[in-house]
């Protein structure tokens, strides 16, 4: 008699299959023939059987830039992180390179008077982030420079897109994002990272890059980016939190969804993304695992500002061992399948890794 199929839903059944442990060739002998603690007994043995490794080469260091010379400004909600003027960002880039960190990601804190409803400062060739890119690329050309594509550091309302009334206009936003992306590439940025979550923006940016002879510009798309409360400290850092009207739920993803992340990623790959990202990190390890398993693409996790703030706050209170939770949180991304991690801990972790 034919077995009745359980109505799990194709996607769920497939996911089960993907995550189910593969049956061993021979049945695993039971205790005491098998004692899993044997391999754990000595440090050398634990090293030998370790499945995943974290290297400085897996890390991307996000940096916040501000106007001025020799200026640093603390971010209260991100203990240990400072916004840096361009000259200091160059020093940080040099330090990252020396530590073996392959790339940095730049985020500008735009002067209030340069923020506007249309976010036009985003495509000013002399804007803060372009000046930072040029300074870094002329002094530390070997380091990869990643720039965000989204309008939130430039809009008076703090949204990633253009507001028409109280609605984000997707297609008009994409037109501006194209200009922003080309502007950043012309300044010398290596990797364009659209974090705005507008539909069709990866394809539109890719086409514009091709038409402008920028065939080798990489796109790291924030493909599965969730509408998360964990971005709070970042918005403090770039100065958009007090401005933000409403929330970003009409463009960033619902934290309840998983299949939808695969659709987002599939689209961005088809539109020309070279690398894809899942964001936030730790609460979304299941998404990283599914995305890597499904597409086999270079896959990145963003351990976002709120994750960093949470660990730092507990460490500063003496409730958690800061170094150990940092390293444990980072190896978790590798275990989940990420090829690399954007993390505010990049410098600290790289120092520790030696
Ligand atoms: C901008 C952007 C955000 C982050 C990266 N790019 C904030 C947001 O979408 O509101 C968050 C990074 C972090 O929290 O560390 N679109």
Largest sheet: 8 strands, parallel, barrel
Number of domains: 1
Report the principal-axis shape: globular
In this entry the ligands are: ligand PBG
Q: Compute the CA-based radius of gyration.
A: 22 Å
Count the beta strands: 12
Descriptive report:
- With 354 residues, the protein is of the alpha/beta class.
- The protein has a single domain (53-353), classed as TIM Barrel, CATH 3.20.20.
- It contains 12 helices and 12 strands.
- The chain has helices at residues 10-19, 43-49, 86-98, 128-139, 170-187, 201-211, 232-238, 259-271, 285-295, 305-316, 322-336, 346-353; strands at residues 59-66, 72-74, 82-85, 103-108, 144-149, 163-164, 167-168, 191-194, 218-225, 275-279, 299-303, 340-343.
- The protein has an 8-stranded parallel barrel with strand order 1-4-5-8-9-10-11-12, surrounded by 9 helices. A two-stranded antiparallel sheet has the order 6-7.
- Helix 5 crosses helix 6 (201-211), helix 8 packs across helix 9 and helix 10 (305-316) runs antiparallel to helix 11 (322-336).
- The termini are far apart.
- The model is unreliable at 1-8 (pLDDT under 50).
- The structure holds ligand PBG.
- Ligand PBG binds next to helix 7.
Features:
single chain; 354 residues; alpha/beta; TIM Barrel; eight-stranded parallel barrel; two-stranded antiparallel ribbon; 12 helices; 39% helix; globular; disordered N terminus; binds ligand PBG
């Amino acid at each position: 008699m034919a077995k009745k199929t359980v109505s799990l839903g194709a996607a769920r059944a497939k996911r089960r299959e993907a995550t189910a442990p593969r049956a061993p060739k021979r049945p695993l002998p039971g205790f005491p023939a098998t004692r899993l603690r044997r391999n754990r007994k000595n440090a050398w043995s634990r090293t030998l059987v370790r499945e995943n490794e974290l290297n400085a080469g897996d890390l991307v260091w996000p940096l916040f830039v501000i106007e001025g010379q020799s200026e640093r400004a603390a971010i209260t909600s991100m203990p240990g992180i400072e916004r840096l003027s361009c000259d200091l960002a160059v020093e940080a880039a040099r330090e990252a390179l020396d530590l073996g960190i392959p790339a940095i990601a730049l985020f500008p804190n735009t002067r209030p008077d340069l923020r506007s409803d249309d976010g036009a400062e985003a495509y000013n060739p002399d804007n803060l982030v372009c000046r930072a890119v040029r300074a870094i690329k002329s002094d530390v050309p070997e380091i990869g420079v990643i720039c965000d594509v989204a309008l939130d550091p430039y809009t008076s309302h703090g949204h990633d897109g253009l507001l028409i009334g109280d609605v984000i206009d997707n297609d008009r936003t994409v037109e501006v994002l194209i200009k922003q992306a080309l502007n950043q590439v012309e300044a010398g940025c290596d990797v364009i990272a659209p974090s705005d979550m507008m539909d069709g923006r990866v394809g539109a940016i890719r086409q514009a890059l091709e038409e402008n002879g920028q065939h080798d510009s990489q796109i790291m798309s924030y493909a599965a980016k969730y509408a998360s409360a964990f971005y709070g400290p970042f918005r403090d850092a770039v100065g958009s939190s007090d401005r933000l009207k409403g929330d970003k739920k009409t463009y960033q993803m619902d934290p309840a969804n998983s299949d939808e992340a695969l659709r987002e990623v599939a689209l961005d790959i088809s539109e020309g993304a070279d690398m894809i990202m899942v964001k936030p990190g730790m609460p979304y390890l299941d998404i990283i695992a599914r995305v890597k398993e499904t597409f086999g693409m270079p896959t990145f996790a963003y351990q976002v500002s709120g994750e960093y703030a949470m660990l730092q706050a507990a460490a500063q209170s003496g409730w958690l061992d800061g170094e150990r939770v940092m390293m444990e949180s980072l190896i978790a991304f590798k275990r989940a399948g990420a090829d690399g991690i954007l993390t505010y801990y990049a410098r600290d972790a790289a120092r520790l890794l030696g």
